[in-house]
Amino acid sequence: MARPVRDCCPLYFAVRGRQLRPVEKILVIDDDAKMRRQMGALLASEGYQVVEGRNGREGVELAKRESPALILCDITMPEMNGHRVLEALRADTATAHVPFVFLTGWGEREDLRTGMNLGADDYLVKPVEPHELLTAVSARLRRRKQAGASRAASVADATPEVLATALGLTPREAELLSWVVQGKTNPEIGIILGIQLTTVKKHLESIFAKLGVENRTAAVTLALEKIPPAP
After folding, report:
1. Of 130, 149, 168, which one is at a domain's C-terminal end?
2. How many of the other CB atoms lie within 10 Å of CB of 196?
3. Are 192 and 113 in contact (CB under 8 A)?
């Protein structure tokens, strides 16, 4: 059973003190030992099996050896930063489709945009609240299972290139819609793409008009119906 953590602050949070049977393996990569331990303790208290990587290089090795169901990775690390970790894992067929979530600070928005464009699935902004971490992990694992159980097109299939071809969208519209399909809010899309919120809304209005829909939910549903599933 995980031990309660003392001297807790918003960045380093205590656990609830209950242990469930591990059901999924989570790899946490962070050079901040205290942060890494606290995240691991919280995840373990919810029944996840946790593997810890002390830096980017070790994280890549662990990802290939341990086959985690999901990876949480800090962006700013010595030796090998989070961007290089993601590139290495996406280049390996064994780890290319493992859900990958960045941990970032508000002062790292440019790094965040770069990471999301490299293929990260989500991000969490420090200080991370326990419920935010658990919700993000649960949502990504659920989507992974749904994609694996269905022959229909999944969120992972909705790349900008595929959306542009299948729906007749401009490259920018397709890029924006791909983030909508992944569940990003308008403000989050603005941060990722480096554009104003008003510009995001204008692109969405154009997308809705082209697709003949009235809202985001309908646009996502139509997109997943129209694009072909990956072989």
Report:
1. 149
2. 10
3. yes
What is the full per-residue pLDDT of the chain (231 aa) written as tens digits?
Answer: 444 333 343 344 434 444 444 478 999 999 999 999 999 999 999 999 999 999 999 999 999 999 999 999 999 898 899 999 999 998 888 888 899 999 987 666 777 777 787 788 888 888 889 999 999 899 888 877 766 554 455 677 788 999 999 999 999 999 999 999 888 889 989 999 999 999 999 999 999 999 998 888 888 888 888 887 665
* 59 exposure class (CB count in 10 Å sphere: 0-12, 13-18, 19+): buried
Structure-token pair, residue 142 = 């659920």
DSSP string, 142-182: HHHHHHHH-SS--GGG--HHHHHHHHT--HHHHHHHHHHHT
Q: How far apart are CA 39 and CA 57, in angstroms?
A: 20
133 shares its domain with 111: yes
Tell me the residue type at 168.
G
Q: Which of 84, 119, 149 is the last residue of a domain?
A: 149
**In a domain? residue 2:** no
Verdict on whether the full-model pTM lies above 0.90 = no
Distance CA 42, CA 120 (A): 22
Domain that includes residue 88, residue range: 25-149
Q: Is 65 within a domain?
A: yes
Answer yes or no: do 126 and 55 share one domain. yes
